[in-house]
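User: I'm putting together a teaching handout on how multi-component assemblies are represented. Below are the sequence lines for each component of a complex, exactly as they appear in our records. Could you produce the 3D structure of the whole assembly as structure tokens, so the students can see both representations side by side? Please keep the chain order the same as the input.
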Amino acid sequence: MNDMKKKILIIDDDIDLVEAMRITLESAGFEVFDAQEGERGLEKVYALRPDLVLLDVMMSQLDEGFQIAYKIRTDPAIKDTPIIILTAVGTQTGFDFNPDKDEDFLPVQAYLEKPVNPQKLIDTVREFIRV
Amino acid sequence: MARSNKKIIELPFFTAGSLKRRLIWLIRIRWFAILAFGLGIGLGQFFPSMHIDGFALSLVLVLLVLMNGLYLFLRDRIIRNDHQRLINLMITQIVGDLFILTILIYFTGSAESPLYFFYLFHMIVAAIIFPGTRPYHFAFLAVTLYTSLLVLEWCGILPHFPFYRGSEIAGRPEIVIFNWAIFIMTVFLSTYLAQDVTNRYRRVRMRLEMTNRRLQDLNRAKTNFLRVSSHELKAPIATIQSTLTVIRDILGENVDDRVRDMADRAIKRTDEMINLLKDLSDLTYGDLRHAGNFKQIDLNGLLTEVVGDELISAQARQIEMDLTPSKTPAKMVCDPEAIKKVFRNLVTNAIRYTPEGGSIHVKLANQATEILLEVCDTGIGLEPEEIQQIFNEFYRSPTAKKLTSAGTGLGLAIVQRLVDEHHGFITVSSQVNQGSTFQVHFPKESVL
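Assistant: Of course. Below is the structure of the complete assembly, with chains in the same order as your input.
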């Protein structure tokens, strides 16, 4: 049964948030892994081949999440991994980032704005996770 | 000090645009001068005491007409925004005028001619336009031309054209020399005075420019600080909220109701805090937005979207809300996100401060000079003295506070700011317990 569990990788440097999301997702029957920074996260994408990646935009660099998303999308070996971007940054905060426009260049499955409601997180993950 | 003054004086205060305006201004004035000269030549024929060589003068005027036409052609067609060439055209015009004027003075009696006053006009124009020593070059040229004319006539190389019949001025060297000396003084003094005034203006303008730049930098730093700090504050609050929600919704199945209640309260407060931080970053939004966000759009679409979104929360409180779109498309160049925020803040305010069973009318009108948004509610209303304050940051009227704890007091400050950025204005009319009407006026020809 354990082998059947879908694997989710959370890449986020906020360990408390990672913990909250881990409990949420485990309660919904997923197996959760995490990484606290982008490059380490990318290594885990190769090693674990997760069924979905939850990716924080702002880690040590402003757009670290986008860089990782770009690397995942441009490597044929892992490019089909579904990605959900987590962000505290929307258009209204004035950052030079606009999901409507950037979507064409960076095909990710969804943007979730923090704080993410647990049910919403589970629903979104279920919607996009690789079957 | 002297050095920095010099530096300022050497700075041209004009831009290519203002230079072009000066050029057309000079060309227009010249048309008037030509007309006035033509009339003068005609009128002069009726005064027997004046001797006017109509033919020679008319020829000079025709030459001037041709030259002015050429300047106009050059200004319009060949030279666009090339700064150096515009300056060259300006110099050509002034030098050309000085020569033509000298010829006119010659044909109107040289030393007797009153036309030498017109040299001063060019001295003042040059002193206003050009920084540095160039106006003095023109002054020197004017003096040289006028002096050469007098000397050449005096030596008999050029024949004298008397202007007033029987006048002996040309034959009396003391009068000619006295007039000439006064003329030279006047030319240089007016150049000096006109340039001195212009230099003062340049210095003030430069100081303003520097202060303005400094203020812009400071404002940018402040905005940046606000943006970064609201983001830095938001991240931990968001995590606190997620953690609390996990406690309540996932781990909390077997916990005491009181624990659940306390978690509820804490989550509600984090919600308020997150809304406040969102509003704070919205306040800085305009400062950081780039011009690319502006596009022409029909405001009816935006308003329909916003009213549609908010309809559920109106219905939840048994408030009737209707929307009257404008009869013709209300197209405007704007930042759609900003306009949506304006609409949303006004509509949610109306819902928030209207008691259950009330009604809200939202209307958009496409008028001759402006696009008018009207949000009219049957809410708690405002005292006249409150209307003055509702656009201030963090102000909430006492009645509003009593009614609901929701609301950050920043909503209308954001609305005001975004409307300002679109060169619009807001009017409010309200009666306590009757309701409020907010009108937003967007000018149609907004130059953005």
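A couple of points students might notice: The CA atoms of residues 35 and 44 of chain A lie 8 Å apart. The first helix of chain A runs from residue 15 to 27.
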